[in-house]
């Protein structure tokens, strides 16, 4: 108990390190990222980072090499979609707001979508990930749900629109451990 002053400081430092390493940073642990790459339009052929929903939704069991990322209409996907036929067997790009993350995921699931990527509605958000959690209902969803930074979602929608495309084409998930850091093309704005 009568340890040297350096030992007490070392114990406090170790405790702080354990707290920081085991507690989620902004609600997120470092291993909870999923990556996807936009293949078309080509001028945003970057690898994007998304975070999976915390306590609902499924997981990617296989890679989707070329799948459509279809913007929902209306963008918030609160209820019935005007373009639900295009969402079927594809991935939906939805905007945050208007209803819970779970409700959005269920709307996409009801339209036969494989997954949903929910982009933050704060278009200038280029660094803060939101933890998507179950709402207060007893509902559940089986489809995969991911959160995307607002700036990333905005840029994907903007470039798609500039090129007159109805959707982007993506590859998801992407294993970034096999890509050398210097070759990993990430968006320049993040």
UniProtKB/TrEMBL annotation:
Name of the featured protein: Protease-associated domain-containing protein 1
Gene: Pradc1
Domain PA positions: 86-124
Signal sequence, start to end: 1-27
Compartments where found: Secreted
Function: Plays a role in the modulation of physical activity and adiposity.
Domain of life from the UniProt record: Eukaryota
Signal listed as a keyword: yes
Pfam families from the UniProt entry: PA (PF02225)
Source species of the chain: Nyctibius bracteatus (Rufous potoo)
Alphabetic keyword roster: Glycoprotein, Secreted, Signal
GO CC terms, sorted: extracellular region
